[in-house]
Amino acid sequence: MSLHKFIHKNVVLQYNHFQLLAISSRKLSIIPSVYDGEQDPGPKFFSSGVQALLKRLTRPDFSKVFRKRTNSNRPVLKTPEYKFLTNEELQSEFSKANKTAARLLQMPPVVKVHQPINEVLSKDPALVGYDNTKYLFTDITFGVPNEDRLIVERDPDGTLQMCDHDTRKRLNQGRKVREPMMFADEEKLNGLLEAEKYEYILDRACIQYEPDELSYQKVTSITYQHVDMKTNYKLLRSTRHFGPLAFYLTWHQSMDNLMLELLQTGVIREAVLLMGLRQAIHEDIAFASDLNALVHQVLPMPVQASKPDSLSEVDIQLDNQCIDCVVKYIAKNSAMKSQQELALQGFREDYQQMVELSRGLRKAHGEA
Amino acid sequence: MGTGSQLGLLCVVMHVPAEKLWKSVTSVSNAGAKKGRGKGAGRIRIRDLNRGQVIGVGKVNMLWPGLSAPVIRGRELLKQQRLPDDPERMEKLIKLRDSMTKFRRLKLSTIERGWSGTRMPGRSIGPPDPVADEEFTGFDTKVLQLRSLLIMKGTLGRTRNYQAMVVTGNGQGLAGFGLGRAKEAPAALRKAKNRAGKKLMHFDIYNGHTIFHDFFTAFGKTKIYVEKKNEGFGLSCHRAIKEICQAIGIKDLRAKVEGSHNLQHIVKAFFIGLLQQRTHQQLAEEKKLHLVEYKDENEYYPTVVASPSVVRTKDEIPKDETLDFIQYVMNDRVVLKKKKFPRFYETMPHYNIYLKKYERYRNHEKIRLNLKIENGEVKSFLNYKYPEENDVKET
């Protein structure tokens, strides 16, 4: 019996040893960077210009926005409904759907990490030694928002002070008190990242944390960096997380990989919008006035979900302006000059062919 | 058979042939036979008492050269001799006799069996026979009905005929049903199957899983209300309709049969209903309006499934026109949806008391599950503070 126990213990020890090794060898190498500097990203993020740019950069594809979702709210599927609609009714239904899409694509806010709360309300020496436990007092008035709720603590030494964030979060309830394993265990988060479940991670982070929490910003930062590293932007497009991703990359001056992806996929107008975003955040682009004028031209244009069949002269003119702008950007501001130049060269050749094709077609039809 | 004391009985037995003796045991009176006596599990059967018995082998285990053994074995000439008795001989014989008498049902594997037991309805009988080198690949035939019919004939009197109804299909839109009559059941099945193969019809399946719209269909006194259903709903309908759907390849549907449940009428009504379906494009053209689909899992995004060539405006639609989709496809027939009565206990006073008491515990099940997930057992939060106090464990 004793021998058996001994062996069992030894085996367990060895097993643990092995596991420890495995964890250390697969450790995450991404260092999270959070919004904790001097500058607050909030005002910039919420400004209408930046919001418009981010929404447009999300490139919403309704087949993905309204994709089949099965979650706990929907335990079983329902029978579809049918309606006979006139043209006007159909248009109003589409405008309703646009509102739903806006709700589904509402971006999680990007704000500065909160500061610890150290507000002492009073010190009453008469209460020292009254009890050896803390007392917490909270306002339970119906309708008070959680962030404005008054929550104070009376310490055993008689100090009455405002509670810190973690105590506030516990008393406000509504979220799981214990951190989910996927955030607490780095190995589990790493596994999810390797499986490219970015949307799941970001959605879950939104449920568990407040946007100004350090843990939230760390998790999102790691996820954004992983997406950037693997160039997996298309997995987050048409979701509410693409705006914060683009904002994060631009804020931390690392949006050149995204720019490269835009050039490689031939979405030159969005490349200009990304430049506009950089200008709005950092104001470090030399040809700012030209760029802003171009951004105003591009913004009202419809989203290019796929390559257009033919180009009108207006389109060609706008795209050429965009190309000029990108050339200037690569020369002055880019950190990945050679790769972006190569990508732009490739795009130009394809584009030239398309221009010739559409002009030829128009000529054949006798339109111009 | 008997002992010495039953000599009188023995004498009778000795003078009556076995045939008569067996008849006296197994016979059923005419009136009894009409009631169905002497059939099925309790029936006494004639046993062959000679089974397992060999000439030359008996109670006493003797060796008879030339009868139960060869005369010469090797170079030795065998002699009559008594061998040691086999004590299990009688037991073996009785066991062999008994094995014949027990009533045995024909067993079918669960895959082969039909709707019930070993009866034919619901069973698969393979694809129809090839017609002029055209093979029915991918087809399967299911028996829907097999029954015997009695016909009076002038010369022969009452004769028995078999009638079979089957459905055949490839599960990809092609299906047909057939009716066959013959003197024998297998022949009737074969005829029905081949007739079904010659009367194939094609049905469009919406998104590969269901019908295009709800419909009402009737044949004779049989009325069927059929509902289109979502993916994963399954076939919730009469078993014959289920077999037809499987033959066609429809996966999700609900059907309610009202009136007569005559099986042949159900089959005919359902096929007629399927044939009278209109595609979404036809519906849109009839109405001259867009047909739009809303799905819950897609956040009710309006998907246009069919658009007509010319769309009417609101002013062109008369006030009394049916615009509700379901009402339109059901031809203005309204399905009576009966109000559900409350369960018998819900109106009793104790149910309210129970609800009030349960209010306190309503979330406990979830909490227990969560604790088990997090700690592996149901543990109080005080355990973290006072780990030494964990003797009392809840399970």
From TrEMBL, chain A:
<dbReference type="GO" id="GO:0003735">
    <property type="term" value="F:structural constituent of ribosome"/>
</dbReference>
<keyword id="KW-0687">Ribonucleoprotein</keyword>
<keyword id="KW-0689">Ribosomal protein</keyword>
<dbReference type="GO" id="GO:0005763">
    <property type="term" value="C:mitochondrial small ribosomal subunit"/>
</dbReference>
<dbReference type="Pfam" id="PF10245">
    <property type="entry name" value="MRP-S22"/>
</dbReference>
<protein>
    <submittedName>
        <fullName>28S ribosomal protein S22, mitochondrial</fullName>
    </submittedName>
</protein>
<dbReference type="InterPro" id="IPR019374">
    <property type="entry name" value="Ribosomal_mS22"/>
</dbReference>
Automatic annotation (TrEMBL), chain B:
<dbReference type="GO" id="GO:0003735">
    <property type="term" value="F:structural constituent of ribosome"/>
</dbReference>
<dbReference type="InterPro" id="IPR005324">
    <property type="entry name" value="Ribosomal_uS5_C"/>
</dbReference>
<dbReference type="Pfam" id="PF21251">
    <property type="entry name" value="Ribosomal_uS5m_N"/>
</dbReference>
<dbReference type="Pfam" id="PF00333">
    <property type="entry name" value="Ribosomal_S5"/>
</dbReference>
<dbReference type="GO" id="GO:0003723">
    <property type="term" value="F:RNA binding"/>
</dbReference>
<dbReference type="InterPro" id="IPR014721">
    <property type="entry name" value="Ribsml_uS5_D2-typ_fold_subgr"/>
</dbReference>
<dbReference type="InterPro" id="IPR018192">
    <property type="entry name" value="Ribosomal_uS5_N_CS"/>
</dbReference>
<keyword id="KW-0687">Ribonucleoprotein</keyword>
<dbReference type="InterPro" id="IPR000851">
    <property type="entry name" value="Ribosomal_uS5"/>
</dbReference>
<dbReference type="InterPro" id="IPR048584">
    <property type="entry name" value="Ribosomal_uS5m_N"/>
</dbReference>
<comment type="subunit">
    <text>Component of the mitochondrial ribosome small subunit (28S) which comprises a 12S rRNA and about 30 distinct proteins.</text>
</comment>
<protein>
    <recommendedName>
        <fullName>Small ribosomal subunit protein uS5m</fullName>
    </recommendedName>
</protein>
<comment type="similarity">
    <text>Belongs to the universal ribosomal protein uS5 family.</text>
</comment>
<keyword id="KW-0689">Ribosomal protein</keyword>
<dbReference type="GO" id="GO:0006412">
    <property type="term" value="P:translation"/>
</dbReference>
<keyword id="KW-0496">Mitochondrion</keyword>
<dbReference type="Pfam" id="PF03719">
    <property type="entry name" value="Ribosomal_S5_C"/>
</dbReference>
<dbReference type="GO" id="GO:0005743">
    <property type="term" value="C:mitochondrial inner membrane"/>
</dbReference>
<feature type="domain" description="S5 DRBM">
    <location>
        <begin position="157"/>
        <end position="203"/>
    </location>
</feature>
<dbReference type="InterPro" id="IPR013810">
    <property type="entry name" value="Ribosomal_uS5_N"/>
</dbReference>
<dbReference type="InterPro" id="IPR020568">
    <property type="entry name" value="Ribosomal_Su5_D2-typ_SF"/>
</dbReference>
<dbReference type="GO" id="GO:0005763">
    <property type="term" value="C:mitochondrial small ribosomal subunit"/>
</dbReference>
